[in-house]
Amino acid sequence: MARVTIEDCLKRVPNRFALVHMTAQRVRQLRDGAPPLLESKNKEVVQALREIAGGQVYPVSREEAEEGRARAEAEERARLAQASLAATMAQEVAVDQADEPTTNQEQAADTPDDDQTV
């Protein structure tokens, strides 16, 4: 496999400072278990640089990152609220079904006893 060069990465990243930060962040992600975006048997640093040079990882501004995080958190809250609502509704249905008399109980309640006169 060909070597990855700084010049290859700088085509995608505005400067060396940003490249160092992006690479370090991607290495942390890889070490924390993030799946590699390109198949390679390299160490994490080289893997991160290959992904940056390949256009798989790209820089975002702090504002964009915060917006993305806020959007992801809002989506997660909405998903949890929906799951909670579904669980509550399922419990209410189960309680309602438990409170309903069975068919045999309904028939017994509708038919008069033999001892009673009508």
Automatic annotation (TrEMBL):
Broad EC category: transferase
Keyword Transferase belongs to the record: yes
Domain of life: Bacteria
Catalysed reaction, written as an equation: RNA(n) + a ribonucleoside 5'-triphosphate = RNA(n+1) + diphosphate
Entry-linked SUPFAM superfamilies: RPB6/omega subunit-like
Entry GO terms, CC: DNA-directed RNA polymerase complex
Documented EC number(s): 2.7.7.6
GO biological process: DNA-templated transcription
UniProt keywords, alphabetically: DNA-directed RNA polymerase, Nucleotidyltransferase, Transcription, Transferase
Renumbered residue ranges of the record's region Disordered: 88-118
MF (Gene Ontology): DNA binding; DNA-directed RNA polymerase activity
Keyword Transcription attached: yes
Subunit description: The RNAP catalytic core consists of 2 alpha, 1 beta, 1 beta' and 1 omega subunit. When a sigma factor is associated with the core the holoenzyme is formed, which can initiate transcription.
Summary of the function given for this chain in its UniProt record: Promotes RNA polymerase assembly. Latches the N- and C-terminal regions of the beta' subunit thereby facilitating its interaction with the beta and alpha subunits.
Family recorded in the similarity comment: Belongs to the RNA polymerase subunit omega family.
This protein's name: DNA-directed RNA polymerase subunit omega
Organism: Desulfarculus baarsii (strain ATCC 33931 / DSM 2075 / LMG 7858 / VKM B-1802 / 2st14)
